[in-house]
Amino acid sequence: MKSRIFLAITAILVFAAASEADGQLYYGIRAGGTLSTQSETGILWTNDGLRQGFNLGVFGGYRLNEHFSVQTGAKFEEKGMRYNYINNEGTFRVLRKNDYINIPFLLKGTLGEKSGLPESWSIYGFAGPYAAVQVYEKEKFISGHPQDATNLTDSSKSPDFGAVAGAGISKKIRNGHEIFFELSYEMGLVKIDSNNPDYRNKASEASFGFRF
Predict the structure, then answer these.
(1) What residues form DSSP beta bridges with 161?
(2) Pseudo-torsion of CA 76, 170, 50, 101, nearest 10°?
(3) What is the pTM of this model?
(4) How far is CA 93 from CA 40, 52, 198, in A?
(5) Which helix or strand (DSSP H or E) is residue 7 part of?
(6) Helix, strand, or coil (residue 74)
(7) Which residues contact 131 (CB under 8 A, 6 or more apart)?
(8) CA within 13 Å, CB half, 180
(9) DSSP H or E stretch at residue 44
């Protein structure tokens, strides 16, 4: 799993570094926390069964003009859920881990001076589709262990496709570089569980980053 993550990150960093001379191109790194669950189509969110995880990645983009840009990248993100396993012995809590390499394709809109913020600050929004490949999967009991279930069979599917939207705020620092904080929401649009075919991935993320 780790080798795949490093290969994806290295490939994008090499591309970004080679393109740095063009002022319209930018790249950066990001990291943050993820809250995820898996639930039926049409349900945006549920507080039951949340898994806490993290995300880590790199990105690159091209500025179309002062206010709009297109952006892609690759990030490792932990998704999944917690659920109850019930049998005649009682109820047992299970953690499902589904970790992905996620590649988004985003249109980004930025407001600078028109936002009313100081000159070095900007706010922005973004939206677009994503594609993700699962790189790790596991289910384990986290409270007790029933006698008749020595192993759990993971029923997850790969890959995942969906949509992402979010917003952030950034501040310019030395040499035109920027630091930023952003919030985003991901909605999976395809089946990710063979036992529960209506289940989709849902995740909220908070990330900090550095834009070169």
Answers:
(1) 131
(2) -10
(3) 0.82
(4) 20, 15, 21
(5) helix 2-18
(6) strand
(7) 102, 103, 159, 160, 161
(8) 25
(9) none
User: Residues with Cβ < 8 Å from 158, sequence gap 6 or more?
Assistant: 100, 133, 134, 137, 192
- Taking the C-alpha atoms of residue 178 and residue 46, their distance in angstroms, rounded to an integer, is 34
Rounded Cα distance between 21 and 139, Å, is 46
pLDDT digits (tens, 9 = 90+) for 114-134: 667 788 899 999 999 999 999
The neighbouring-strand residues paired with 110 are 124
Beta carbons of 138 and 152 less than 8 angstroms apart: no
Q: Which helix (H) or strand (E) holds 154?
A: none
| pLDDT at residue 155 is higher than 70 | no
> Per the structure block, which two tokens stand in for 108?
């980004």
What's the rounded Cα separation, in Å, for the pair 141 and 150? 10
